[in-house]
Each structure stands twice: as C-alpha cells, then as structure tokens.
Amino acid sequence: MRPLIASDPPTNFTYPAGSVNPPHTHPRATELLFLTYGILVVGFVDTTNKLFTQRLQAGDIFVFPKGLVHYQFNCAENDSAIAVSAFGSAAAGTVSVPSTVLATGTDDNILAKSFKTDVYTIQKLKAGFAPKA
C-alpha cells in the first residue's frame, strides 16, 4: 500500500497541542475534514443555534455544512494533530466570527448591547484583535 503523503505535511495543516481554529464559516461551500493524525474536537452550530460536537481520531472524516459556524480544537496536551480539508467550491470563502465581530469597527455600544455586557469588556476583547506593532 502506498502512503497518502510521502513527506512531512505543510505546517498549515498542523494543529499544535491546545490550539484552536476559531469559529468561522465558509459562506459558499461545504467543508470535508479528514484527520490524518492526532485528536481534534470539532463542532458546528445549526440554524436553530444547536451545537453539534464530535471528537475525531486519525482516519475520521467530518462534514461542516455550507455556511454554518464551526471550529476545530486540538484537545491533546502534548501532541499535534494533522488534518486535510476539502471544499465543495473553488471559492469557499472564510468569515472569521471573532475578527468580523470585534475587528471591523462596529460601534462598542452596539456590541455591548448585543453581547449583554459593558463597553469596557468589549474594548478589552477588541484589544486582542488590534494590529501588532
């Protein structure tokens, strides 16, 4: 049997221990995730705000439906995970929920009311998305 990948994978396929691919969506494509090494916890939120999660091991495949917010998290304490994604479109697009909400200039008062918190908390969250000097 020939190996699927004969050399080390590119680093952009690797999830270091404890890392997360934050909540995001692909507005124009379904995503198929194939885990080749390690363990990932994945999840997506459907249109009724129900969260679906699954713990994946090497060899598992998971489908994220088109346009739904989803994430991947490497829950291992000391080991990386390697995954390969395929999309149902050549132009899947990616919308990062945290940066879209917090780094696009939306008024602090609107965000505070939306998240049912105060402006100070919103400003602290936004600071994490400020450009690095």
Rg, nearest Å: 17 Å
DSSP summary, beta strand count? 9
The SSE string, one letter per element, is: EEEEEEEEEHHH
Number of domains: 2
CATH-defined architecture of the largest domain: Sandwich
Within CATH, the superfamily of the largest domain carries the name Jelly Rolls
Within the CATH hierarchy, at the fold level, what is the topology of the largest domain?
Jelly Rolls
Low-pLDDT windows of residues? none
Mean pLDDT over all positions:
87
How does the major sheet shape up? 5 strands, antiparallel
Distance between the termini: 50 Å
DSSP helix count?
3
Region (Disordered): 1-22
Domain Cupin type-1: 7-123
InterPro entries: Cupin_1 (IPR006045), Germin (IPR001929), RmlC-like_jellyroll (IPR014710), RmlC_Cupin_sf (IPR011051)
Keywords: Apoplast, Glycoprotein, Manganese, Metal-binding, Secreted, Signal
Record keyword descriptors for this entry:
glycoprotein, Jelly Rolls, 2 domains, manganese, 133 residues, alpha+beta, secreted, four-stranded antiparallel β-sheet
Folded structure, characterized:
- This protein has 133 residues and is of the alpha+beta class.
- It folds into two domains: 13-95, Sandwich (Jelly Rolls), CATH 2.60.120.10; 103-127, no CATH class.
- It has helices at residues 97-102, 108-114, 119-127; strands spanning 14-15, 20-25, 31-37, 39-45, 51-57, 61-64, 70-73, 81-87, 95-96.
- The protein is globular.
- The mean pLDDT is 87.
- Keywords: Apoplast, Glycoprotein, Manganese, Metal-binding, Secreted, Signal.
- Residues 7-123 form the Cupin type-1 domain.
- Its main location: secreted.
